[in-house]
Amino acid sequence: MPLAFITGVTGQDGTYLARALLAEGVEVHGLVRPGSVAIVEPGVTVHEADIRDSGALQGLVADLKPDELYHLAGQSSVGASWEDPVGTVEQTGAPVAALLQAVERHSRQTRLVNASSAEIFGVAPAPQNESTPIAPVSPYGAAKALGYFLVSSFRERGVHASSAILYNHESPLRPERFVTRKITVAAARIARGLQETVTLGNLDASRDWGWAPDYVDAMRSAVRQPTPGDHVIGTGELHTVRDFVVAAFAAAGIDDWQPHVVTDDTFFRPVDPATQAADASRARDRLGWAPTIAFPELVERMVRSDLARIDESV
């Protein structure tokens, strides 16, 4: 039975990935923070370690010798990275080095895929692809760029390592600190009379939003390719935060969203990247990958889930 090791197994992507791998009959091991109370998918063997503890990470890889290693863990907020840039590098960039070194030294049969981010492209013109220059404009993007370059360096040394350069991907499992889930939760609560307004930042900011399980499928495909490589994963379609708001409130049965939305400049990013839109041609050609869920359905699924949670709690 193949063995997979997932860092960040309790997050959105880790949860969907664990479900998919378990359904295939893969033996799944996952990394969680010491003392974590987060829910782990049933069937996953749990290992506790701090993602910043390189010795622990290397020891786990040496002991498990996984066939597939999915590195998803790390600080995941662009905004929070400005508050703690050093911690962001320690949690998001440096662990990639520890895992790659462990594979090279102790588990050469392991195939690794690193969850990178469109934030590595910064202000590069859209659309971006694998040839777009790396020019991050946030500590988070810089930390992700470090991981990207480490993967490339170790791949040159014979390690089967790939980066999935993920654009924004959402689902009902997205934490509420992310603007998309903040919007869908608010729309559901307003529809049920539990709150009146939601405060947001730049409604004109545009993003390439996709369905998280699709992006997990791309990572599974990437790690199983005979030849490792980097792949941009995104829909190529742009929508503004305003578009997301309109779709979410409509899905909640609210036609006039404007009285319920307040904007506040303090929610604007210090530096907002230019338009991020994926050119996922390589993923389509080499992985056979394409998104399966369109933007309106993505938003509707998230709102329906949040409405259901509210109704179940009454």
* Helix share bin: 40-55%
Give the overall shape, derived from the CA principal axes: globular
Q: How does CATH name the architecture of the largest domain?
A: 3-Layer(aba) Sandwich
What is the strand tally? 13
What is the strand and helix layout of this fold?
Elements: E1 3-7, H1 12-23, E2 27-32, E3 45-48, H2 54-64, E4 68-71, H3 78-83, H4 85-106, E5 111-117, H5 139-156, E6 160-166, E7 169-170, H6 179-191, E8 198-200, E9 206-207, E10 210-211, H7 212-223, E11 231-233, E12 239-240, H8 241-251, E13 261-263, H9 281-287, H10 295-313
Parallel strand pairs: 1-2, 1-4, 2-3, 4-5, 5-6, 6-11, 7-10, 8-13
Antiparallel strand pairs: 9-12
Helix pairs in contact: 1-7, 2-4, 4-5, 6-8, 6-10, 8-10
Description:
With 314 residues, this protein is α/β, with parallel strands linked by helices. It folds into two domains: 3-169 and 211-233, Rossmann fold (3-Layer(aba) Sandwich); 174-207 and 237-275 and 293-313, UDP-galactose 4-epimerase, domain 1. It contains ten helices and 13 strands. Helix 1 packs across helix 7. The longest helix has 22 residues, at 85-106. The chain starts with a strand and ends with a helix.
